[in-house]
Amino acid sequence: MATATGGDFISRLPRIYGMYTGGFLAFVIVLALLEHYMNLSDRTIGYVFLAATIGLYAMIGFMSRTMNSDEYYVAGRRVPAVFNGMATASDWMSAASFIGMAGTLYVQGYDGLAFIMGWTGGYVLVALLIAPYLRKFGQYTIPDFLGARYGGNSIRLIGVVCAIVVSFVYLMAQLSGAGLIMSRFLGIEMMYGIIAALGGVLVCSMLGGMRAVTWTQVAQYIVLIVAYLIPAVWMSIKVTGNPIPQLAYGGVLEQIAVLEQQFGVVAGHVQPFTRTDMANFMALTFCLMVGTAGLPHVLMRFYTVPSVKDARTSVGWALLFICLLYFTAPAYAVFAKHAVYTDVIGKGLAELPQWVAYWGKIGVVAVCDAVDAATTIKGCTAAGNGDGIVQLKELWLHGDAIVLATPEIAGLPYVISGLVAAGGLAAALSTADGLLLTMSNALSHDFYTKIVNPNSSVTQRLTIARVMLVALAAIAAYATIHAPATILQLVGQAFSLAASAFFPALVLGVFWKRANKAGAIAGMLVGFLLAGYYIAGVGWNFNALLGVGFFPDPGPTPANPGVDGRWFGINAISGGIFGMPAGMLTMIVVSLLTRDTSPEIKAMVENLRYPRMAKA
Amino acid sequence: MATGTEGVNARRAEYWRRTVRLTAILLAIWFVVTYVVAFFAVPLNNFKFFGFPFAFYMGAQGALVIYLILIVYYARYMNRLDREFGVAEED
What is the pLDDT of residue A614? Predict the structure, then answer.
């Protein structure tokens, strides 16, 4: 990749990544053989896997180093549609998708599908409303678009602040995901896990910016999809004899329904709206979709393709690559449930499969049969009946356990567990890469270059970008180590914020010439602040935290069953359901009340709508 | 056929009108597949599809396949429209 200057490199890409995939599979097989014949310890396998993959990403980053602005910010705009699709897929799929989603589906059944639909359906909005127009615009960042379309530094600055807040929240989730994986598989402190993971991210993005991040993300996609599919395929063969888990789990669902009746489960796996009500299901789906079409780190990727045509095609590729994983996540949940219902529930404590004890030690599984379980066993919330047999309600599973434990449930060698860890890490790091770059670009390009010092040299700009990257990484690491919320919650909240802040200004900017600067400023502020206000109150209980009554109260809790400060019973994660429409409405009303846009802006919008202006 | 600037403007307006119409139609399908199906999820689950309860299948796979089809169709249609109206990038 050091020779990444001509079209030659682009045409060799399929071969390069083909060889890379082959090499990676060979590496896994060699490790498996070593495990079998040399008795490698689990810890050693974990270290080899994580060190090898992080080293590889760092190497790609090092080989893609650059001092050219176009290369640093948009990978030279030469990324073919398929590869941008792959990079977008791994940019997109975070620790939450890889580790958390199957667990959510395990716990919530049908209701968890809000995440599956929300995180894929958003691409329809990206494809139809944003990606082609952004590519035609053809600058570097999302605040660039806002600044040019609405005019002036104030809107650009609001864009910078929103992009940083959204990306920062999302980045914390990635770092804590990466830290968890490191600490579980290497047994090191979570804090050191986070720092080690950040090191890998920094080497990659610092030297080569978008160019390095792009080629690393493609490599990370390959690792994560291989790691996700192998255990599921194996599990599918084991349970159903069919090697395609996505098709096979329908039959298993029926077996689960029978077992659910035996265990007296009232709300079955496929039964809708039993763990979440319909309003929250719909609101969550909506926020995740619209948030997708407002996340700067994802949208930014569509600047890197050569043409508008490629931008359109690229969204399709991205969704295809994402679907490979998202089709599989519900299968994971169903196979895991099947295993739990047949091998664990109703069994004596002595005859439990090994994985229960193993993941119990790690702290993601707990058997709560003992009468004093609530106080003596980590994870248990209630006492068991002490009859020596595991009842359904005596088993506690952390959502993360589903993907992490599946290789052992399927009876695969430990090397596959290491592979899954590497996959989860790839998912977290690839997203972290994109997020860090988005934030540092917002600060260096939009804030420093465009606002503070427009006369700076390219070297100055790129140096500032790199300094920002390191500073942001350090702040994010510190914040993550001290943050309370769980991964999925954080990510969901970032989507609501992105939906509220960016979506109206981006879409109306293209589809409504009348949308003006005052409208955009008011709309972005109202949307972002309203969603933030709701999330702060309902999600983080700011009233109790700050001792005020200004924010909405959280929903009912066991300690406080009578208090429900939520609006229409909507959960904090879906705060965007209020923020986005409010922002859009504000933008429309304020635009109509203030002066029409100038002919220059109208001409610019006109220009965005056609891939190439026809000659008069 | 009109010529000169007016003709070009009319052609542009027509291109944009067709773009917006296609966008609206595809978004309507997107809406039905996601929200209307979810709204009727409880009764729809009584139907079987590939061995899955129908609403569950839609949420887990069916909707995703349709999203993909929408995006691919949009890309193909728009690329053709670009050529038809002489606004494609390559020529």
Answer: 59
Burial class (CB in 10 A: 0-12, 13-18, 19+), A13: middle
- Residue that finishes a domain, picked among A499, A529, A560: A499
pLDDT means over runs of 10, chain A (616 residues)? 59 91 92 89 87 88 88 92 96 89 92 94 97 94 94 92 90 86 83 84 84 94 95 91 89 90 86 91 95 94 95 97 95 92 89 88 86 82 86 87 87 89 93 92 90 88 87 88 66 89 96 96 96 91 87 84 86 93 97 95 94 70
For residue A271, the chain B residues in CB contact (below 8 A) are 45
Q: Check whether residue A115 and residue A155 sit in a common domain.
A: yes
CA distance A604 to chain B (A): 14
A249 shares its domain with A163: yes
Residues 268-307 of A with CB under 8 A from B: 270-273, 278, 281-282, 285, 289, 307
Same domain membership, residue A465 and residue A414: yes
Note whether B55 contacts A: Cβ–Cβ < 8 A. yes
The residue range of the domain holding A348 is 341-398
Cβ under 8 Å to B: A residues 324-383: 326-327, 330
Identify the segments of chain B with pLDDT beneath 50.
1-2
Q: What is the value of ipTM here, to two decimals? A: 0.95
Q: Cβ of B18: how many Cβ atoms within 10 Å?
A: 15
Tell me if A527 is assigned to some domain.
no
Q: Note whether A120 and A24 are same-domain residues.
A: yes
Task: Quote the pLDDT of residue A488.
Answer: 55
Can you give the pTM of this predicted structure? 0.93
Cα(A74)–Cα(A128) distance, integer angstroms: 22
Same structural domain, A185 and A265: yes
| CATH number (domain holding residue A86) | 1.20.1730.10
Which tokens sit at B75?
Answer: 């890309």
**pLDDT for residue A136:** 95
Cβ-based contacts under 8 A for chains A and B: 146
Query: Are A368 and A255 in the same domain?
Result: no
B13: contact with A, CB 8 A cutoff: no
Residue A81 in domain: yes
Least Cα separation, residue A442 to chain B (angstroms)? 29
Which candidate from B63, B75, B87 shows the least CB-CB separation from A316?
Answer: B75
DSSP code string of A453-478: -TT--HHHHHHHHHHHHHHHHHHHHH
Quote the pLDDT of residue A549: 85
Q: Are residues A231 and A200 in the same domain?
A: yes
* DSSP notation for A34-87: HHHHH---HHHHHHHHHHHHHHHHHHHHHHT----HHHHHHGGG---HHHHHHH
A55 token code pair:
């080293």
- Tell me, yes or no, if B30 comes closer than 8 A to chain A by beta carbon: yes
Count up the domains in chain A and report the number: 2
- A326 and A350 in one domain? no
